[in-house]
Amino acid sequence: MELKPSTPEAAKPSPTGYVFGAMVLVFFGLAAAFLGDLWGHPPARQNIALVEKSFLEKTPWRQTYADLVRAKEDLSDFDCYACHDKKKPPQLRFDANNILIVPVEHKDIVMGHGTHNRNNLCYNCHNESNLETLQVRDGREIKFADSTQLCGSCHGPNYRDWEAGAHGRINGYWNTSLGEAGKLDCANCHNPHAPRIPTRVPAPGPHALRTALAPSAHSETTH
Amino acid sequence: MPLPEPTASVPETGSKNLDRRSFLRSTAAFAGLTALATSLSPLRELGDYTSTEQFLQKYYKELTPQEMKQVLERITNEVEHQYGIRPHVRDLKPMDGVEFVYALNLTRCIGCRKCVHACVAENNQSRSPEIQYIRVLKMPHGSMDVEKGDHTYDDKEVPDKGFFYMPVQCQQCKNPPCVKVCPVNATWQEKDGITVIDYDWCIGCRYCEAACPYWARRFNFTKPEIPADRLNPEMAYLGNRPRKQGVMEKCHFCIQRTRVGKYPACLEVCPVGARKFGNILDPESEISYILRTKRIFIQLKEEMGTNPRFFYYFDK
């Protein structure tokens, strides 16, 4: 840096010397500014955590009987006559308010089908004469794997929409000539004993650009 | 330094013992050049913004198939250089007899925001700062006024009582204002109804962002940051290839998926099946069924005359 003044001095009266000297000064100034970060770095960005992979999950959260068969999983839960007697259909018991008492052996079942839990009789859907099948109210016997037909026997408009592809999730190909459209069954999304879709934790909301720049402003975000 | 007079007198002694003047002069010249180089150092980062090939690249619609191949090769190499993953970049053209339409069932949407993040993952959006194509508005029952919507809701559980949720993304208008304002034709509407952006042609003026009545366009203010392990290697030129700083981006109906017959990522991840997508020109498609039979809240801000290809509907 001490050398700087000597450059214009050496140039004496020559105007070119002054110009070059001034340019050298400017370059020195710029160099010092860049090296010393006089403009400063942009403020460090707030580290935004990556979203949990569970929010990117595409598979339905329930498995139907048909899925279990396909996946060759343990079906012992569906072996009703391991406990029940084939000749004697199990009796339903009700409390004083005429609400079904779920037996302790089936205590994982939460009853909640229909407005005000009105569809609370097991044999509305299960077949009392063969517990390993289901029954429609007109008496037709239906296999567990074909449960959508049972659901459709009451929920006509939704069944019609589902058949047309308008109700429920579809994964895969919209153009079925190029690939398969993975259509789901009712029980892939709805628990037949409590079909209303439960509330869930939402994925994190957006971080606005300015909050990402200034961590201190995080609490006072607006939209 | 061009100072001929003094230097002319020096040579006899110059070679052996350097005189003071030429020493100072050459030192000053050297220091000056060093300073010049340092002062130009920000130019070193220029390579991140553009390359010669990209700078000299022709307009998308004028590229011959051969040139397109070279462009895709360049993008593949750039992505591999930056992320260490060799992507599969394609230039997908619209299919014949296909016009895409999206429908969203407001009765079903529970506001879980899974679509937002599935979109980010599929389309290689910047994670920090965050760029998201979908904005889920939490709206009070009994109103369709988007001004009353809040997209920053932070509820423990959704859906909240007394509210419905309305995800808003690019509406793929038939009469897109964003395309009209683009001064360089870097965005246009394709035959299948998708409004696309050529990220290599965009100059980043953000006119389209201002023109869009749906707040659907996003700008890369800084260099986008994507962790390499979250990069989606299945890419399309007009779709999800990584963007650079200073260009616009927006929802393109997952062009890299829909143009090969698949559903968009936001639809596949929806846990309640509120999102429906398909070819409106096919009378058998579910989207045709919905528009025929459902109660449609026609289009968002239809008074703008944009005529979106995105419909909101109700079940009951």
Features:
heterodimer, A: mainly alpha, 2 domains, two-stranded antiparallel ribbon, 7 helices, 26% helix, disordered C terminus, B: 316 residues, alpha+beta, Alpha-Beta Plaits, 12 helices, 12 strands, 30% helix
Task: Write a structural description.
The complex is a heterodimer of chains A (223) and B (316). Chain A contains seven helices and four strands; from the N terminus they run αααββααββαα. By secondary structure, chain A is mainly alpha-helical. Chain A folds into two domains: 48 residues, no CATH class; 129 residues, no CATH class. In chain A, strands 1-2 form a two-stranded antiparallel ribbon. Chain A has a two-stranded antiparallel sheet with strand order 3-4. Chain A is elongated. The two termini of chain A are 51 Å apart. Helix content of chain B is 30%, strand content 15%. Chain B contains twelve helices and twelve strands. Chain B has a four-stranded mixed β-sheet with strand order 10-2-12-11. A two-stranded parallel sheet of chain B has the order 1-8. A two-stranded antiparallel sheet of chain B has the order 3-4. Chain B is elongated and about 100 Å long. Classes of the chains: A mainly alpha (223), B alpha+beta (316).
